[in-house]
Write a structure and sequence with these properties.
The chain is an alpha/beta fold. It contains 18 helices and seven strands. The protein has a seven-stranded mixed sheet with strand order 3-2-1-4-6-5-7, with helices on both faces. Helix 4 links the parallel strand 1 and strand 2. Helix 12 packs across helix 14 and helix 14 crosses helix 18. InterPro entries: Glyco_trans_2-like, Nucleotide-diphossugar_trans.
Length: 568
């Protein structure tokens, strides 16, 4: 026995590395052939299918909007509309102090319904004066309008400034109420819900909503409320956004291009064909009875506006979009603020889709076609597929396909269909057509964040209810001379004690906090794919891959948008 053990110790164990390498190569080839290639091919096929879905949706929307324009299908021709006792608007002691006409309570004001104007705020130091001043300048009998400022600010200085501004306008005879609550439960939805519980709101029939950076024209109510007065089946009148700082930088121009298409085509087509579209959360007028009928505001997602719109539509109420009425607003001009906004706008709809899927299917009050539109067109194509396919197809499947000669993507899927989709979306901003290529590259980069947010919403994971209010830099104040001179209150130049995004705190910045590492990583990978295509694959994708990879790197190193002020 001892001799056997000694023999084993003397004989060395030799490993045939050539055989091991051959076996590993064989295993890798089998994995590639039976797992990786089929998976990538499946991704390509699914992406092509979703791309065609998006193409058909864009063509349908464009056809509807151009047909409506050709045949003169304006909201005023589809629904009853007429001025509400126009003569009553100028009766009864108008107050023209500071150049603002405050319509008095003349003998004819009873013809006007009582309207509540809600302005939710959260640490809005830069824009609170503009929004409150614009709301107080609305032409409507003073005894038939209540302005409600819902201040959830956590900064005591901002809170005092907003309160002082409300008191100033109240001293001028404006019926304005300053409301605060003890906590921020439910965020914006919670504030709006609690605002409707006030006793004085019982007299109101309609409610106009404006975010803190929105500046409605003085005739806003005169042009929107008549739709609700003359058409008892309409629950919502949505107006279009315009942007006071769209020329500030490329980031704001790109946002303007995306939102112009959304309003001019998507909202318009939804209003014409289905009398339904997603409420944009601001610059709209609701029938309060419709809100109550739908169960009021819900805070289960970060898109409380869309949640309310879907629940209201399922009860048979109609929506109308009035694109001729435009309300000024401010676009986020820093990439960080825009990224937070896009997370909320992408995560919320996906999460709402998950939570309302069964409710929509079970609803008997709406037709099969309305359900199909809601589930397929509105949610799946518009809120899920559009975000998923952009990243999976253009930023993963096409770059990775250069490593697999057996995967051939048809030319129509790489060039023709994406080009037509891009041209359809570019119709929203003809004056910015020269920026289309840069816009598409930027949109592809943003798809990285949108797909993460969409998956977060579908899976209901940790960041699903993350709510970061979009940071405003006060660009509206700098570009709207019409609002100058409205205040005679001295503003103390202080910093927020609890800023929403800690931009003024001086601290050591780590490398991964200073730059957007995920964009840098994806951009580097795409450029590597482009290099491989040039050297080996010869598929001709390298031009696109290099440009797209460079776009990821540019945004990864924060060379887009403006930079927030910092402490020296």
């Amino acid at each position: 026995m001892a001799a056997t053990v000694g023999l084993r110790e003397e004989v060395p164990v030799r490993l045939d590395w050539a055989t091991v390498a051959a076996q590993c190569a064989w295993a890798g080839e089998q994995t590639r052939s039976f797992l990786v290639v089929p998976a990538v091919r499946l991704l390509v096929l699914l992406s092509l299918a979703m791309t065609v879905m998006i193409l058909l949706e864009k063509l349908f929307v464009a056809a509807v909007c151009y047909a409506a324009k050709a045949f003169g299908h304006r909201p005023e021709s589809r629904y009853k509309w007429g001025p509400i006792a126009a003569s009553a608007c100028k009766t009864g002691g108008d107050d023209e102090e500071d150049g603002i006409v405050v319509v008095g309570s003349g003998s004819g004001s009873g013809a006007f319904p009582v309207v509540l104007v809600q302005i939710p705020m959260y640490n809005e130091r830069e824009v609170y004066k503009v929004s409150i001043g614009a709301a107080c300048a609305l032409e409507w009998p003073s005894d038939r309008m209540v302005i409600q400022v819902l201040d959830d600010s956590t900064d005591p200085v901002v809170k005092e400034l907003v309160k002082t501004e409300c008191q100033r306008w109240k001293g001028k005879g404006v019926n304005i109420r300053y409301e605060v609550r003890g906590n921020r439960k439910g965020y914006k939805a919670g504030a709006l819900k609690q605002g409707l519980m006030r006793d004085y709101v019982r007299e109101c029939k309609f409610i106009a909503m404006f975010d803190a950076d929105f500046q409605p024209e003085s005739d806003f109510l005169l042009r929107t409320v008549p739709f609700l007065v003359h058409n008892p089946d309409i629950a919502l009148v949505q107006t279009r956004w315009k942007f006071v700082n769209s020329d500030k930088c490329l980031l704001t121009r790109f946002q303007e291009m995306s939102l112009d298409y959304h309003f001019k085509f998507e909202q318009e087509a939804g209003s014409i064909v289905y009398s339904f579209f997603g409420f944009n959360g601001t610059a709209g007028v609701w029938r309060i009875s419709a809100i109550n009928d739908a169960g009021g505001w819900e805070d289960r997602t970060t898109v409380e506006d869309m949640d309310l719109a879907v629940r209201t539509a399922l009860l048979g109420w109609k929506f109308v979009y009035v694109g001729a009425v435009k309300v000024g607003s401010e676009l986020p001009s820093t990439f960080k603020a825009y990224r937070f906004q896009q997370h909320r706008w992408s995560c919320g709809p996906a999460n709402l889709f998950k939570k309302m899927l069964l409710d929509i299917l079970r609803k008997k009050k709406v037709s099969f076609w309305s359900k199909l539109h809601l589930l397929y067109d509105f949610f799946f194509v518009g809120k899920i597929a559009a975000h998923m396919v952009t990243f999976i197809y253009y930023c993963f499947a096409i770059p990775v396909s250069v490593f697999f000669p057996e995967i051939q993507i048809p030319l129509w899927g790489v060039v023709y269909v994406p080009t037509v989709i891009t041209l359809c979306k570019a119709l929203g901003s003809p004056s910015s057509f020269h920026l289309v290529i840069l816009w598409v590259l930027f949109d592809n980069v943003m798809s990285l964040h949108r797909i993460k947010a969409t998956i977060t919403g579908l899976l209901d994971t940790r960041r699903v209810n993350e709510w970061v209010v979009t940071e405003k830099l006060g660009d509206a104040n700098k570009t709207e001379p019409a609002m100058e001179g409205l205040d005679d209150v001295q503003v103390i130049d202080v910093e927020l004690s609890t800023p929403l995004v800690p931009k003024l705190e001086k601290r050591r910045t780590r490398l991964w906090d200073k730059y957007n590492c995920s964009e840098i990583f994806v951009g580097t990978c795409i450029i590597i794919c482009g290099c491989y295509d040039v050297l080996y694959a010869k598929k001709g994708y390298y031009i696109y891959l290099f440009i797209q990879g460079l776009a990821f790197l540019v945004i990864g190193f924060e060379y887009i948008g403006t930079r927030p002020p910092s402490i020296e």
